[in-house]
Amino acid sequence: MKKTTLILMIVLLGLNLGYSQEKSKSKSFEVKGNCWMCKNRIEKTAIKMKGVKFASWNVETKQLKVIIDERKCSVSDVQKKIASVGHDTGEFASPKEVYDNLPACCQYRNPESSQMDHGKH
User: Fold this and answer.
1) pLDDT of residue 112
2) What percent of the chain has pLDDT over 70?
3) Is residue 39's pLDDT more than 60?
4) 41: closest CA among 77, 69, 83, 95?
5) pLDDT of residue 113
6) What is the edge-to-edge ordering of all strands in the sheet holding 24-30?
7) Which residues contact 89 (CB under 8 A, 6 or more apart)?
8) What CA–CA distance (Å, rounded) separates 86 from 109?
9) In whole angstroms, what is the distance from residue 109 CA to residue 95 CA?
10) Distance between CA atoms of 7 and 96, rounded to whole angstroms?
């Protein structure tokens, strides 16, 4: 009887560990931006969201990599929140008034902003 109970507990524990690993998923998507100020804004916005465990935006590729708990938020939720602070994503565009208040070097819709000094800070 003890052996059966032990085996059953091990099986249930194994199933539970497998399920807990499924809750967090790695995703990536495009987020428009230009510089290191954009990087800080994008990453801080994402990581403050409930369910986002990791966020890293690549300035060169414009890709945001996130690890999210899909039970607490979705990729769409993250994209919407990032758009609300001024950065277009694949699914959402930033409101004009928010975008217009970004620093000049962060205004990625302006072709001249790509000529600005975007050095590392």
Assistant:
1) 82
2) 75
3) yes
4) 83
5) 74
6) 24-30, 63-69, 52-57
7) 29, 30, 31, 32, 79, 80, 82, 83
8) 11
9) 12
10) 60
Query: Using CB atoms within 10 A of its CB, is residue 79 exposed (0-12), middle (13-18) or buried (19+)?
Result: buried
- Residue length of the chain: 121
Amino acid 119: pLDDT: 54
CA distance 96 to 84: 10
d(CA 108, CA 114): 7
| Residue whose structure tokens are 């003890």 | 2
Q: Any idea which architecture 24-115 has in CATH?
A: 2-Layer Sandwich (3.30)
d(CA 25, CA 45): 18
d(CA 64, CA 115): 23
pLDDT digits (tens, 9 = 90+) for 62-76: 999 999 999 999 999
Cα dihedral 28, 32, 34, 36 sign: negative
Task: Find residue 31's DSSP bridge partners.
Answer: 89
pTM strictly above 0.85: no
pLDDT greater than 60 at residue 13: no
